[in-house]
Amino acid sequence: MTTTSRGTTPPFSSVRHALQAIETIATSGSPRAFIVGTARSGKTSLLREITNLLADLETAFTEYRPGPSAASVPPSRVLVVDDLHLLDEEHLDQIGGRALDPTAGLIVASRPWPRPDGLTAIWRRLEQDAPAVVLGQLSRSDALTYCQVHGRAVSSACLTQILAATGGISWLATRALSLHDDRDCVDDPEHSGLHLLLQDEIAHRLNTADAQLRHLVELVSIDPHANLGSIESVSAVDALIAQGHAEGLLLRNGRPVPVVRSAVLASTPAHRLAELRAETSADRSSLISHDDASAPLLQQALNVWSKGDLDGAAELVEKAEMAAGSPNSDLAADLAAAIWAERGLPLISSQSYLARPTDDPASSVRALLVHAGAGFPDRFHDRQSVAQSPTTLGVALQLFEAGLRDSVKQQPPASALSSLVQASELYSASKSVGPIAELPAVVAAGVAMGAGELQTAQAVIDAAVSAEQGGPWARPRLLGWQAFVAIRNERPHEAREALRQAEELVSPQSSRTQLLLATIRITLARRYGDTQSLTMAWQAALTASRNVDVSLYSLLPLGSLIDAGARLGDSVTLAPYLAHGLEIVRRLGYPPLWSNHLWWAGVQQGILLNKPGSLAPHAQALVAAAPHSSVAAAMAQAGGVWVAVLGGKVDAGAVEAAARGLAAAGLSWDGARLAAHGAGRLPDDRRASSRLMACARELHPPEVIRHAAGSTESSPTPSHEGASLSEREHDVAVLILQGKTYAEIGQAIFISPRTVEHHVASIRRRLEAKSRSDLIAKLRLTIGGTEDR
């Protein structure tokens, strides 16, 4: 019998959940299990833990070595096999024979690829006894466990960036966490130094990989929607994707994670990159009919458009003069409409299809999307369905059309959202990189938020980002919407990371997406910043907004802008935008899924500016919509309670119910503000006031970054010379380091300025700070490394 000494470091790499299965495996009558995971995901470590436990239990086991027959190991002794995928057919047959005996102990570990028939037979037989132990991608909790075990401190923001860059691939995430040093983040918040270290290791793995696998990774790193026609067959592509996933270079769907993509771009010679880019452009060429004289110009237009050069693409489309009936006319209309939409001019986008009417089913759906966005229902046209062989893209667009039409009804069916979610999933699966004025994921997320389904909105956008929906041109917009939805979901760190990525990719010519990103910065400042940061973000957004008109799909971000403007006392600048938005929903018949949030923005503007007269029409509209919309009902109830609170009539129970109703409708931050307003007007009822403040903090937690290594989030923060800060003192301290005043700190974490003053005095005593400058210096030493940079 071969035994191993007990290791001092627990296994990691996504085995946290698997550790729970170790005791079950080791203590069963006949220990049997199939462990599967990608390269360096912790399979061997997990086997070592199991054999250690078997040794402690005095259970006999043998570690398999090729050579002696597996048949010579008696059933009572557990046979432990590592790297099953490396064994030849003869040895797999030996182990397969043992797997057929349910009384024979057998624990094996393998990569998910290759999968010869003998290995698959073993897998299936062992799964009849117990579910396979799958070591998949690294989760956030896995990473926190690793940090705790290894005594490492990584801020929440850094952890979010690391998991995003590595995609949670086990070996990459583990390596990144082991190389991470908080001191580097002071001058390198984007972790560029860490990325360089990882890129070197990735480049080494690519250099030693199979040539075809390396070629595949290069292609999908240049363009995730690359044409893979140069690979001999679909089955060969599938096998290479499975191999890339098993090697820890690709996600299961064949997508490269950001750090792998950047490693390919950084390590590939310039001439080779040019060859790869030429190869990946073949899929865009397939959109064009090359029998038409316009084909060369349209090909160039598609290529420059996909890189974000809207002006260059528009110039080429305009040069490609086509006669009526040209086979490329529909594509030209689609491209022109997409360009004008991204320029932020939905009216002209709609006119593009009036100038080039289309009978093509796919282009007709894209035209409907544009006309709805501009608010022109009279331009909707019912078309007869033509029997044809279904394609993934065709079905996606059919569902998109059905969901969009349903979403603009006064009483939309529940199927509207499900159709749009399905459309987004299938559109991603189609790998379409063609021009479209708005992405299915964005429309689906907008409708989900209109229905109060924030989790659905987040799931749709996250899936689209992961699948690279629409191709490279679409990524900045998807990331922007991912950030916007994350803010609504009270996930500011994720929002900041998505915003950072979008800012790196967005084209200066993409006015619509530039305004979206400016709106996200304003919303973060409004909810988590101070007046100074809000003012700066507001000025930048005003510049971005001057070149963009309102569309149906921008109404949600417009609501955030209106709220921020009202907070700064400005209701004039955005008045034309609000009026235009209201005109769009009026022309569409006031569909509640698209109208409610705009009306709510009008109510909030009236409250913030103390203008009851201006909020009345919006409040009345919400009341009218309430019988057919639970979101409108929650808004109408909260609006009435809010006005009563501002008038000095505070019913604590009604305030809390209204606040929680807003949260259930996807408006947690608004609910927190309502609860805080109610608490502030109950100075003589401390119990009710405290309950409402607790409700406010629950609905909108403060953005505070803590060390990951603590046993719980509520653990005291280690402080200067052995002192420790309570959780609330830590929150206050972080906000002090951000330069906030007592009033701003109170607004951020829903406590009174006087309570802030008490906390600051307590912190000073704990740190023995003799002055404000001394306090700041000591706070920087003790918790400075956990600030949200």
TrEMBL record:
<keyword id="KW-0805">Transcription regulation</keyword>
<keyword id="KW-0238">DNA-binding</keyword>
<dbReference type="InterPro" id="IPR036388">
    <property type="entry name" value="WH-like_DNA-bd_sf"/>
</dbReference>
<dbReference type="GO" id="GO:0006355">
    <property type="term" value="P:regulation of DNA-templated transcription"/>
</dbReference>
<feature type="domain" description="HTH luxR-type">
    <location>
        <begin position="718"/>
        <end position="783"/>
    </location>
</feature>
<dbReference type="GO" id="GO:0003677">
    <property type="term" value="F:DNA binding"/>
</dbReference>
<keyword id="KW-0804">Transcription</keyword>
<protein>
    <submittedName>
        <fullName>Isoniazid response ATPase/transcriptional regulator IniR</fullName>
    </submittedName>
</protein>
<dbReference type="InterPro" id="IPR000792">
    <property type="entry name" value="Tscrpt_reg_LuxR_C"/>
</dbReference>
<dbReference type="Pfam" id="PF00196">
    <property type="entry name" value="GerE"/>
</dbReference>
<dbReference type="InterPro" id="IPR016032">
    <property type="entry name" value="Sig_transdc_resp-reg_C-effctor"/>
</dbReference>
